[in-house]
Amino acid sequence: MKGESLTLTCTIAIAVFLITLSSTLSFCLALHETPQVEPAIFQVTDENLIPNIPTLNRKFSRNFIHKEFQVFIEKYDKKYSTKEEHMHRLGIFAKNLARAAEHQALDPTAVHGVTQFSDLSEEEFERLYTGVKGGAAAAPRLFDGVGSEAEKLEVDGLPESFDWREKGAVTEVKTQGACGSCWAFSTTGVIEGANFIATGKLLNLSEQQLVDCDHMCDTREKSACDDGCGGGLMTNAYKYLIEAGGLEEESTYPYTGKRDECKFKPDKVAVKVVNFTNIPIDENQVAANLVLRGPLAIGLNAVFMQTYIGGVSCPLICGKRWLNHGVLLVGYGAKGFSILRLGNQPYWIIKNSWGKRWGENGYYRLCRGHGMCGMNTMVSAVATQVY
Ligand SMILES: *[C@@H]1O[C@H](CO)[C@@H](O)[C@H](O)[C@H]1NC(C)=O
Ligand SMILES: *[C@@H]1O[C@H](CO)[C@@H](O)[C@H](O)[C@H]1NC(C)=O
């Protein structure tokens, strides 16, 4: 480990790389894997389970692509100003249909298909959401000296399934927009939860304060600094908040999705952060900490999230060292039934910040126990007051 760290940019830009890699790999896998069922049923809209994609290399018919593009435009209320733009988007959309089919083959327990991102090219995704600093090679454990490593907790007797949403510790799913601010949403999420547990009150806290005001850098990787829509790290944000004196509510410092001057007012602070801990990579410890302390901030590799529709995502290959997205772990379940594979998978429940229309009402389920997509390598909790 070269101490090289990364800044979470909330993008699947890095995905570009992995998709290239995974397409190659998926091809290899397809060669020696003889699936009992057709590799995929490709869900295109919420209601229709159409069509079957018999092989990975299937070419979609023009008619099919046009029809699906029309459905997409209506569903997501897309507006293209010129005919040229329309045709350009259609071309990208067609490519993304093929990518979704690849993801489906690699991740058969989830459903992949058209999402609101289906008219964006990989490059645009990178431009709109990116700002990777410190390179793509994330250190697998991003401990940075401040805060401390969580003590080992007892893991026997943990509930079979657990969900902080049912206990009222989780705010509504938010929308980061075309801004690499996932790290700020992950940070507010973990503080909202900790504050709820400490006070019994659920507050919407301000991501915009972090986007505008937090420039904190990682102590080890000096170039990994919080940078508004250009990315950041949750642990940096905790340090900023400890120094700044706390975090305002959404209502006094609302989200705009653009970096602006810092308008933080110390007298508007709603929650103070006093400490934070990094959770060990052991997923049982992650579960124990989740139950004891509340929702946890995590980083993961979001490559499969661009095309995710629902189900338990359990990809055959998902880089663990390519963390590029910050999200909030809110619970776990014992068995997620997957109709596609007739299989059960224990899973994590993850709150994302891409609005409620993405995934399962804004949530992602990722299989548990395999360090999937690096979800166990950057896990943190905060303390919001001294007891
Ligand atoms: C948080 O904000 C959302 C969107 O404005 C709102 O629907 C929700 O009720 C708020 N939640 C709390 C706990 O204030
Ligand atoms: C932060 O937490 C660690 C571990 O729980 C503890 O040792 C340390 O004293 C705490 N620091 C503060 C300032 O509360």
UniProtKB/TrEMBL annotation:
GO terms for molecular function: cysteine-type peptidase activity. GO terms for cellular component: lytic vacuole. GO terms for biological process: proteolysis. Keywords: Disulfide bond, Glycoprotein, Hydrolase, Protease, Signal, Thiol protease, Zymogen. Pfam families: Inhibitor_I29, Peptidase_C1. Residues 158-383 form the Peptidase C1A papain C-terminal domain. Belongs to the peptidase C1 family. Residues 69-125 form the Cathepsin propeptide inhibitor domain. This is Peptidase C1A papain C-terminal domain-containing protein. CDD domains: Peptidase_C1A. InterPro entries: Papain-like_cys_pep_sf, Pept_asp_AS, Pept_cys_AS, Pept_his_AS, Peptidase_C1A, Peptidase_C1A_C, Peptidase_C1A_papain-like, Prot_inhib_I29. It comes from the Eukaryota. The lineage of its organism: Eukaryota, Viridiplantae, Streptophyta, Embryophyta, Tracheophyta. PANTHER family: CYSTEINE PROTEASE FAMILY C1-RELATED. PROSITE patterns: THIOL_PROTEASE_ASN, THIOL_PROTEASE_CYS, THIOL_PROTEASE_HIS.
